[in-house]
Design a protein that fits this description.
The structure is a single chain. With 484 residues, the protein is mainly alpha-helical. The chain is built from 23 helices and 2 strands. The longest helix has 26 residues.
């Protein structure tokens, strides 16, 4: 482990995030929110001073190549530090009186979870709400990935940082250099964000609302400046725009790169993309018919509108809402809950277990049945037009098993708070899966203020390991990682 060089890189990254706080700080001063604006100013100064002092004190330590161990350590440390510093404006502004609440809120932001402890969202200052949504956007594509794109001196070491933060069992390499890949992904991400913002402006949202909604949509996060979430605008147009861009955010961004470089046919042949869309549209038809047959909405078009939005919000782990789906009948509600265990595509901004893992594990059963009938036969699992190797299958199965074990264990721990079974199961799966809203007391009309402080720290840990896909963080707790 290269301790000092790793810490230098981590503090450089924190200074970059601190500089980005100038945007919400400016919004605060513009709207005469002196307390919140000053809290950002104090945080920026603190982080820059700490960074400057640390870099000066360690100036004799030259940059060394980042190894895979350094990558795991540096990415995890950077996320924890970013949350720790990012929570300070919330406390210093006086709008969050408890640091546990503030840390939970910003961890929820950076990990694109969207879970909140705010009961009165509109009662917060515009600058604080903007910062919440901005953390969504930074965490969506990954601020370490952005760091890799902007720092050419990382060289080949950027590959380890990119791999430790990006999501999915496989890491798409769009170019020979990790920096070029990171830059391409961020440019596509920014491009979609600009397009959605413009479309939302045509829907009647002002610039502040359009930008904050875009921040949370493209990152598949869920923070909103309205207490009623997207339902506050009551616009079918806005619902459709947000639904489309949630699905875009839940798609592998490497496929967009292929489309832009003239490889659209290859992109559309992607097995995970086809499964992702098939799952969504099949569930959409079932949910819409279920809502229509039970008389929740009068017209089938209205059923499609609300079903499409909510299913897209859950499968992409965004966590927006236009209605309280917990009041839906059992059948459509079950479909919504089922989507919580799937998630988006690998290489997307969505959380969850990912479609490729779910579909691959499900394909193991028919393969094993064939082997029972033909013991000497050779059978393979395919994803689209690609054969999935045995080691990768084992990794996916192990991930799913670990994911479910952590969910059950965490649920048992949350039950110690006195929460009911439904709320305990929901709160842990929506934090581990970075979903944001669930059912029980943490449904569309609830929040996390009902839990004690120690539970919020547990939820923060679940959000972190969920966003970094378990192993990046859990490997730090193994003895082998720290041995020479």
């Amino acid at each position: 482990m290269n301790w000092i060089p790793d810490l230098r890189l981590a503090m450089l990254l924190q200074s970059g995030i601190a500089i980005m706080m100038m945007l919400p700080m400016g919004i605060g001063y513009q709207h005469h929110e002196t307390a919140s604006a000053n809290s950002f100013l104090f945080t920026i100064v603190l982080v820059l001073v700490i960074t400057a002092v640390f870099l000066f004190a360690t100036r004799k330590h030259k940059h060394v190549q980042v190894s895979s161990r350094d990558g795991f350590f540096l990415v995890t440390l950077s996320w924890v530090l970013a949350t720790a510093f990012g929570a300070l404006p919330l406390v210093w502004s006086g709008e969050y009186t408890n640091y546990s609440y503030a840390f939970f809120e910003i961890m929820s932001g950076f990990t694109t979870t969207g879970a909140t402890v705010l009961a009165d969202i509109e009662g917060c200052s515009r600058s604080i709400l903007f910062w919440r949504s901005m953390t969504n956007w930074l965490g969506g594509m990954g601020f370490v990935v952005l760091f890799v794109a902007l720092m050419p001196f990382l060289g080949a070491g950027g590959t380890h940082l990119f791999g430790a933060e990006s999501v999915g069992p496989t890491k798409d390499k769009l170019a020979p250099k990790a920096r070029t890949t990171a830059m391409a992904l961020w440019l596509i991400y920014i491009g979609f964000s600009v397009i959605e913002t413009i479309m939302l402006l045509f829907g009647g949202l002002d610039l502040y609302e359009a930008v904050t909604v875009t921040f949370s949509t493209m990152s598949c996060a869920g923070f909103c400046v309205k207490g009623a979430s997207i339902g506050a605008w009551g616009s079918a147009y806005v619902d459709v725009v947000v639904t489309v861009f949630m699905l875009i955010g839940g798609t592998n961004f490497a496929l967009y790169f292929k489309m832009l470089t003239g490889k659209g046919r290859i992109a559309f042949k992607d097995g995970e993309l086809r499964s992702y869309l098939a799952i969504f549209f099949f569930a959409l038809l079932l949910c819409a018919f279920g809502l229509k047959l039970t008389g929740v909405y009068q017209s089938f078009g209205t059923c499609l509108r609300y079903a499409a939005f909510q299913l897209a919000s859950i499968i992409t782990t965004t966590g927006f809402a236009t209605t309280d789906y917990c009041l839906w009948p059992a059948f459509p509600l079950f479909l919504v809950i089922l989507m919580m265990f799937i998630g988006g595509c690998a290489g997307s901004t969505a959380g969850g277990m990912k479609v490729i893992r779910i579909t691959t594990v499900l394909k193991l059963t028919p393969v094993e049945l064939k082997r029972k009938i033909h013991p000497n036969g050779v059978f393979s699992v395919r994803g689209g037009d690609r054969r999935i190797e045995g080691n990768l299958i084992q990794s996916m199965a192990g991930f799913c098993a670990t994911y479910l074990f952590i969910w059950i264990l965490a649920s048992l721990m949350i039950m110690l708070t006195g929460a009911d079974i439904a709320t305990s199961l929901a709160s842990t799966i929506l934090t581990l899966g970075n979903i944001g809203i669930g059912f029980g007391k943490v449904g569309p009309t609830g929040n996390f203020t009902i839990f004690p402080d120690w539970a919020k720290w547990l939820f923060s840990f679940l959000m972190l390991i969920g966003r970094l896909e378990l192993y990046t963080v859990l490997v730090l707790f193994t003895k082998r990682f720290w041995s020479k």
